[in-house]
Amino acid sequence: MPKALALSLGDPDGIGPEIAVKAWNALREDPHAPRFIAIGARNAVEAACALLKVPAPQILEHWDDIEAVFPERLPLLALPRAEGPKGSAEVTIAAIERAVGLTLDGQASGVVTCPISKARLYEQGFRHPGHTEFIAQLCQKTPYTGTPGPIMMLAAPELKVTLVTIHLSLKDAIAALSPDLITRTIRITHEALKRDFGLANPRIAVAGLNPHAGEGGALGHEDEAIIRPAIEALRAEGLEVFGPLPPDTMFHTEARERYDAAVCMYHDQGLIPLKTLNFHGGVNTTLGLPIVRTSPDHGTAFDIAAQGLARADSLIAALHLAQTMADNRLR
């Protein structure tokens, strides 16, 4: 049997505990579905189980018990939670640390993370830009020496996109673009498609920045001066990468059949088409780490938490993808 996944539950006041229970309830009777242990605040998980009218979680002390427990009760590695915002932040961080540690130690096959509230963590002194950067520090290395951290992929059955820049204003994202940064993103995408997705010869499409990919310089110089040199350098090394492509014509059905993943220059350029194609099934995947890490592609949704309204589709997809990636790494 493959090893189980470690699921950190995110902010205990968000929808993380609820969607974890819903995911377990949807998967528990399928012997081929990924197995996981939830890691987080006991009271939040017990409240979610009561809300959804399923058995209370099984508190585990031994990792080997997961398979025997999973069909009957949600396995939980319970962490203490103090009262108030400070207590919520502490258990959120502790769950991530524990999930990453178990995976680095080889006990878990990968990490899946439920949503966190960065604003709440910042209020309590959290100094990392986000989830991904914190996990990268816990891993203490990336596969490309001298490069600034891992990259983000959003994956759905219809489309996979990676982002050269992520959470920057459009003005700052354009200023940050460079041939080196684009080259690095394409390299990590290429290696991940081989190692994590089992593709022997990945095909990668690269989006242009400007309308019509710059129209030969008439609509902006970045496509020819910054993006094309990165593509040509990698093509010279034998990678199957092409572009820059006009962004408005590269995401329709026939166009997507030509490539396995698209590299996009900024956040919305990649996420708008992906979320239009599959809003509930997208998975946030971190590439360039020594461990597998996926996450549902949504936030904490405090406004609907503890009401039984949250959908677990994206978390279920994240669990399936994490297990597939972990299995591919063993081959």
Give a quick set of tags describing it.
331 residues, alpha/beta, Isopropylmalate Dehydrogenase, 2 domains, twelve-stranded mixed sheet, 41% helix
Walkthrough of the structure:
The protein is built from 12 helices and 12 strands. With 331 residues, it is an alpha/beta fold. It has 2 domains: 178 residues, Isopropylmalate Dehydrogenase, CATH 3.40.718; 119 residues, Isopropylmalate Dehydrogenase. A 12-stranded mixed β-sheet has the order 3-4-2-1-5-12-11-6-7-10-8-9, sandwiched between helices. Helix 8 crosses helix 9. It starts with a strand and ends with a helix.
Topology:
Layout: E1 5-8, H1 16-27, E2 36-41, H2 42-52, E3 58-59, H3 66-69, E4 75-79, H4 84-104, E5 111-113, H5 118-123, H6 131-139, E6 151-156, E7 159-163, H7 170-176, H8 179-195, E8 203-207, H9 222-236, E9 240-245, H10 253-256, E10 261-264, H11 267-277, E11 283-287, E12 293-296, H12 313-330
Parallel strand pairs: 1-2, 1-5, 2-4, 3-4, 5-12, 7-10, 8-9, 8-10
Antiparallel strand pairs: 6-7, 6-11, 11-12
